[in-house]
Amino acid sequence: MGAHRHHPSLRWSLAAACSLAGSLASAGGSSSGGGELLEDTFNPWFLTSVPEVTYCIGSADDFSVPKEVLAQYVANSFDYWSDEFSNAYLPDNLLGENPAHALIVRVKTSGFKLQDCTDKVDLTFQFGTLGVAESAYVKSRAIDTRRFVAFTGRLDYDRVNLRGKGFIYVSPDRGPLAFQGDNVVPNAWTADGDNSRLGKVLTHELGHVFGLPHMGGPGSLMDQDFPEMMVSQSLPRRLTRS
């Protein structure tokens, strides 16, 4: 994916997107990448008061990108958001005791620990397949995974400790379970040789875990159509490299 490029407009938006203190007690929810699924994406799953957050890379046996490469892109996405939040700023009239400012400081975006997948892990990355709990979640909401490039699902939310638990699912780019969109790049996750499209989609979905909703104009990282754009044949090649 190469070096991450900063998004000044995104940093400005962090103030508005994170002024969510009143909604932090919400339970599970979903957000999407490349589709219209949207439940509650405004709640950061983890605050800095949480001592440790664990994540794992689920089975990727039928995915076109090797698991060790997937793990590196996940780590890159964590680094991206840690950097973005550390550089977030607010206009002078929003500094001080404003809840948005407090929440930006409190969102946990670093210190995530990779481990083997168990039912105790806080965040699971699923590539092309779903575990038992994730399958039940999808079934209960009648979600057709082929309609989404990727989506994020929160399975549980601890209202006392303000701590989420859930998964990020990324569609395979081939086979019967692949995203069924229009004008999709064949074998999109490996088409560029460096899997850059996949890395950007992962970063988009992880933004939802950190409390960011769909926002920004066309081409913005958190735009609702960003994942679809990443796998579109009409995407200028330069955008996969930036």
Task: Tell me what the structure shows.
There is one protein chain. 29% of the residues lie in helices and 14% in strands. Strands 1-5-6-4-2-3 form a six-stranded mixed beta sheet. With 242 residues, it is α/β, with parallel strands linked by helices. The longest helix is centred in the N-terminal third of the chain and has 20 residues. α2 packs across α5. It is globular, with a radius of gyration of 17 Å. It has one domain.
What's the quick description here?
This protein is of the alpha/beta class and 242 residues long.
How much beta, percentage-wise? 5-15%
By DSSP, the count of extended strands is 6
User: Main sheet?
Assistant: 6 strands, mixed
Contiguous runs where pLDDT drops below 50 for at least 5 residues: 1-28, 34-40
Question: What's the mean pLDDT score?
Answer: 78
Helix content: 25-40%
- What is the ordering of alpha helices and beta strands? HEEHHEEHEEHHH
Topology:
Layout: H1 8-17, E1 30-33, E2 53-57, H2 67-86, H3 99-106, E3 112-114, E4 123-127, H4 132-140, E5 150-158, E6 163-170, H5 196-209, H6 226-230, H7 237-241
Parallel strand pairs: 2-3, 2-4, 4-6
Antiparallel strand pairs: 1-5, 5-6
Helix pairs in contact: 2-5
